[in-house]
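new request in #modeling-help
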Amino acid sequence: MSEPDRGVDTPPARLIALDWGTSALRAYLLGDDGAVLDTRSEAWGIMQLPSGGFPAAFEGVTDEWRRFAPGLPAIASGMVGSAQGWVEAPYCNAPAGSAELAGALASAADGRLFIVPGVVQDGGAPNVMRGEETQIVGALAARPDLAERSLLVLPGTHSKWVGVADGRIRDFTTYMTGELFAVLSSASILGRFARDAGRDPTPESARDAFRRGVLASRSAQGGIAPLLFSARSLVLTGRLAPVASLEYLSGLLIGDEIRCGLTGGARPDTLIGDPALCERYQTAFGLFGVDAISVITDAAPVGLWTIAQHASLAGPTSAAAIA
Amino acid sequence: MSEPDRGVDTPPARLIALDWGTSALRAYLLGDDGAVLDTRSEAWGIMQLPSGGFPAAFEGVTDEWRRFAPGLPAIASGMVGSAQGWVEAPYCNAPAGSAELAGALASAADGRLFIVPGVVQDGGAPNVMRGEETQIVGALAARPDLAERSLLVLPGTHSKWVGVADGRIRDFTTYMTGELFAVLSSASILGRFARDAGRDPTPESARDAFRRGVLASRSAQGGIAPLLFSARSLVLTGRLAPVASLEYLSGLLIGDEIRCGLTGGARPDTLIGDPALCERYQTAFGLFGVDAISVITDAAPVGLWTIAQHASLAGPTSAAAIA
């Protein structure tokens, strides 16, 4: 990470944007129109902070930038605003868009940092998100055609399927797909064959096993409860290579999420998230006959910029708000 | 554990029966007609053997009994016959009953111990069991009315729903309900509220939360994937006590197993297993309108006795087989 050249020829910095989750802290220096001027990344998620805690992590990751622009406003989204975070930013009720989020920022670091709240959908089947709301704001800013009405899928530890209407998050569902895969791989008997194999499957056998898992889930209309154990029994009966068994499990779990999500004829418009994970989901969606889903990556900095604009934080007009 | 009185007035010992699983070793001294004369229990499951391994565990748990009857035959079922066990007893193909199992015993301890094989149902959705086959043989011996045609449910780490026809295991399905509960409780975010609470819920709030979980699963026709996270979101929105959240999760998972198992109008005849767990399942079945399911406990020693009889191991006629 070289020190950014903040000489006369560089565009002016307008905002520091932090994507601050459970396991990572990603920082962006944004200029006019939210252009990314520089980035930093640390493993300082809220569960693994450096000595000195949140303030030290904040100073450490933004210090170089703020040396050149001491009054630069900063905004963060993600678990940093949870009850286990720096300052709790209470959930906004759905429906919520950039205006509602901007109107409910919490502040930390003596007012030098603003924190975006998560969103709660209360009711019979309550759901919460924290961090994804900002990615969605970013996605809608980048793709205004999605704002009027769309279904967005954000794969991850806790995947979200989010219905958008009139530019706001209207309703959403959570699938614990990524966390289920992590705990079953590491702590259950389903991970034992792959752990014992101690090597990765070939790309071809990984792809085949993943596809088999997706297809098995596709035909399990009542859910995968009676199917989960097949990630072991197929190996025991010589029908699946031990080393590929976790790829099969990944296919089962992602396939189950997609089968549930598509119930009732829903069709997602776009995937938002990590490129490799989105590609995996694209493959799985294809096996359900849902092709050509677009992918939006790096939506967080655009979302943070957009929310900051709504809060009149970024740019020359922001000095008063920060002082 | 007092030394059994093997004096002139005690009935003669016929067989040592071992229920030897992953985490426990239960030993039974059986007399005429399989009557239990004495029992031993050690934490010497195949994953936590004493120094000296399998032979030491076998000698340790049966030593007192064999001192009085050195030629006493012994038979074991469970994971002791798996690839990670003492001697692998390859799976019998379904359909399989006591005759098929008795015809495929493996032997260990220089021929002093016979090991019951598991059962495999091969085909599109393969399934395996090891230990449950012996409990089923025991249940059918105790309840001959179940032999012609019945559906048996054995709740546990890997629950089995077993179709019986003509006295044999015909087909079966595995639900990883117990293991899912264990890994989600201990390793996922769903366990965090209860872990932090550090105390048990009151019996009443536990019962209520369990019932809510079962009822939520009952109405989730496509499976619980979109519902699992409610074990957290209901707490975050103040609708579920943190301390009772794992009872709710237990209800969700058991409810999902039952909803899947009842698909197509199937109706179980009996539960086989641990009394407390069977009672939990009875409650859940009741919420699905399936009442008055009977419970069979301690089926393993009867099953081991029955299989040993088929193999001509037990009783006075067994000496030749053991010599």
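bot summary: The first strand of chain A starts at residue 13 and ends at 20.
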